[in-house]
Amino acid sequence: MSSVLYIHGFASSSKSLKAQQTKHWFEQHHPEIKLMIPDLSVHPIKAYEQLTELYQSAPNVAVMGSSLGGFYATALHQQFGCPAVLINPGVRPADRLVGYIGENQFWHSGQSFTFTEDDVFALRNLEVETDRFPERLWLMVQTHDETLDFKQATKRYCLSKNTIEFGGDHSFQNFDRFLPRIYDFFASFA
Hints:
Elements: E1 3-7, H1 17-29, E2 34-36, H2 44-57, E3 61-66, H3 68-80, E4 84-87, H4 93-97, E5 102-105, E6 112-115, H5 117-126, E7 137-142, H6 150-156, E8 161-165, H7 179-187
Parallel strand pairs: 1-2, 1-3, 3-4, 4-7, 7-8
Antiparallel strand pairs: 5-6
């Protein structure tokens, strides 16, 4: 692995806590790794285009994604076979995000954006039922996720490595303690 792509969740940004923890850890422990943490479009077609362009622009990429970012990481895994770590991922995010059709705000900037029915349809088109290389996926969930049902993810990724922690929340509390193990997981596929 020479590059890591971190993918934030819905209405989030590169300023999210996990993104910043990942950035600081890699800067401190593995500055030779090219770390990409893009601010993605809220529109799935544009976001996935951004991600595939970034993925193809760097050598030997491993992917991490949180929430909707975990969903996108799964799609990248399906397309390219890359190793991916999925943190409290959305399994069928279109089902949940249909409730966000209309005006919304980004978590970090407060800037407004519009999410549409076409965006929900685009998410449905990216859904993947089975994985090319389940051994290259690592699911990380906490059971008290207030946003997503962790059981959907454990059922969906039952053939992959799973870390299921009792408690926590959707942010995956104390995520940074896993960064050394995430690096090792990625390095095992290099």
